[in-house]
Amino acid sequence: MKEAGYNTANLFEYTRLQVAVSGDGITEAGPGYTLTTSVGTPTTVNVSAQGGTLGGRQTRVVQIGGDGTETVLQDWDSMQGSSDESASTASYTWTPDQRRRRPAPRRASGPPRRHLDDRDPQGLV
Fold this sequence. Notes:
This protein has 125 residues and is mainly β. The protein contains no helices and ten strands. Strands 1-4-8-7 form a four-stranded antiparallel beta sheet, with no helix packed on it. It has a three-stranded antiparallel beta sheet with strand order 2-3-9, with no helix packed on it.
């Protein structure tokens, strides 16, 4: 690209957006996470993202009811970026009303679940 006259100093290799979830009682479970905690105890879910385009990442929290209805608990909100904007973090605190929760695809029946969505400035989730 240099030979063609492009300024390569401003080019970055694109990597797919990757998201991780952590916090007390949170463990990885297949394609999602499981939360095991006491009923009525506030829990903070920490979300970290890297990859995608630099900076401008957002996250939202959606509750998926046992019948599949979705309720937005926290709409798209900016994540805190690192100094070079290569990574971002956010937190969400909620009080579980059942013993086990995990972000997961919609189900036909069962207890409500929380689903975390993250996106970069291009809108890629």
